[in-house]
Automatic annotation (TrEMBL), chain A:
It is a multi-pass membrane protein. It is found in: Mitochondrion inner membrane. One of its GO terms (molecular function) is proton-transporting ATP synthase activity, rotational mechanism. Component of the ATP synthase complex composed at least of ATP5F1A/subunit alpha, ATP5F1B/subunit beta, ATP5MC1/subunit c (homooctomer), MT-ATP6/subunit a, MT-ATP8/subunit 8, ATP5ME/subunit e, ATP5MF/subunit f, ATP5MG/subunit g, ATP5MK/subunit k, ATP5MJ/subunit j, ATP5F1C/subunit gamma, ATP5F1D/subunit delta, ATP5F1E/subunit epsilon, ATP5PF/subunit F6, ATP5PB/subunit b, ATP5PD/subunit d, ATP5PO/subunit OSCP. Belongs to the ATPase A chain family. The lineage of its organism: Eukaryota, Metazoa, Chordata, Craniata, Vertebrata. CDD domains: ATP-synt_Fo_a_6. Keywords: ATP synthesis, CF(0), Hydrogen ion transport, Ion transport, Membrane, Mitochondrion, Mitochondrion inner membrane, Transmembrane, Transmembrane helix, Transport. The keyword Membrane applies. This is ATP synthase subunit a. It comes from Sousa chinensis (Indo-pacific humpbacked dolphin).
TrEMBL record, chain B:
It comes from Tursiops truncatus (Atlantic bottle-nosed dolphin). This is ATP synthase complex subunit 8. Keywords: Acetylation, ATP synthesis, CF(0), Hydrogen ion transport, Ion transport, Membrane, Mitochondrion, Transmembrane, Transmembrane helix, Transport. GO terms for molecular function: proton transmembrane transporter activity. One of its GO terms (cellular component) is proton-transporting ATP synthase complex. Belongs to the ATPase protein 8 family.
Length: 226, 63
């Protein structure tokens, strides 16, 4: 039962060759490159959505932080498209892999921290102590703030992994429950089916929201440090 | 949990880095947002200075 439940999260292997690379690169095929002066509708819609998202995301940053807009927008599009493609039945979602999320979270977080350290050393160190703390609490609070700083990349990665994995697992379980209940009592199976439909809608929302949250937090860490 | 099997981690991370940093960013960087059209003033011609009135020999390339 355990092996069967987590089988969809194993790296897909075809004839002994891991095809993860192709699966990870697939969402980029859904974003055609605008090569002409006037592009087709799909590219126009994507450009419009990108402009909307980037304005929403980058307007609170200083010019130094806005240099990260390409990075953050492509991060958002990558996570959102990967999560949404994972909603197709029997597909493999790369964002369920802790390796990939750690690989995204740690370099981006480290980049923001090092930028802050290099350009504004005093201000980034000052972030370790909230304003107005009593003097005798300072050493303990600095330790707590340092811990919370170092836990940021881990939290980013594990949050994305856990949310998407849990959603997919729940969908899988409730789906197989509906199927099993169909032979026992049709009414309960109907109720379970309605729960499944609601869960699917939730999962679509979660797919987009998680992408947004990831990018938002990275941009927040960036704001602190630019 | 199959996500904790570290044998495939290098492959996943490398393919993600390539996709995210190379492929996607190259595509998104080609998005061109043209600036909104502005009216251009046509009467900004500068007055010709008096010594430009006649074309003299020294302006010819072979002299």
């Amino acid at each position: 039962m355990n092996e069967n439940l987590f089988a969809s999260f194993m790296i897909p292997v075809m004839l002994g060759v891991p095809i993860t690379t192709l699966i990870i690169m697939f969402p980029t095929m859904l974003f055609p490159t605008p090569n002409r002066l006037i592009n087709n509708r799909m590219i126009a819609i994507q450009q419009w959505l990108t402009k909307l998202t980037s304005k929403q995301l980058m307007i609170t940053h200083s010019p130094k932080g806005q240099a990260w807009s390409l990075m953050l927008i492509s991060l958002f599009l990558f996570i959102a498209s990967t999560n949404l493609l994972g909603m197709l039945p029997h597909s493999f979602t790369p964002t369920t892999q802790l390796s990939m999320n750690l690989g995204m979270a740690i370099p981006l977080w480290a980049g923001t921290v090092f930028i802050g350290f290099r350009n504004k050393t005093k201000m980034s160190l000052a972030h370790l102590l909230p304003l107005g703390t009593p003097t005798f609490l300072i050493p303990m609070l600095v330790m707590i703030e340092t811990t919370s700083l170092f836990i940021q990349p881990l939290a980013l990665a594990v949050r994305l992994t856990a949310n998407i994995t849990a959603g997919h697992l729940l969908l899988h379980l409730i789906g197989s429950a509906t199927l099993a209940l169909m032979n026992i009592s049709l009414f309960t199976a109907l109720i379970t089916f309605i729960i499944l439909t609601l869960l699917i809608i939730l999962e679509f929302a979660v797919a987009l929201i998680q992408a947004y949250v990831f990018t938002l937090l990275v941009s927040l860490y960036l704001q602190d440090n630019t | 949990m199959p996500q904790l099997d570290t044998s495939t981690w290098l492959l996943t991370i490398l393919s993600m880095i390539f996709t995210l940093f190379a492929l996607l960013q190259l595509k998104i960087s080609k998005h061109f947002y043209s600036p909104s059209p502005k009216p251009v003033d046509t009467k900004l011609q500068k007055q010709q200075t008096p010594w430009n009135h006649t074309w003299t020999k020294i302006y010819l390339p072979l002299s």
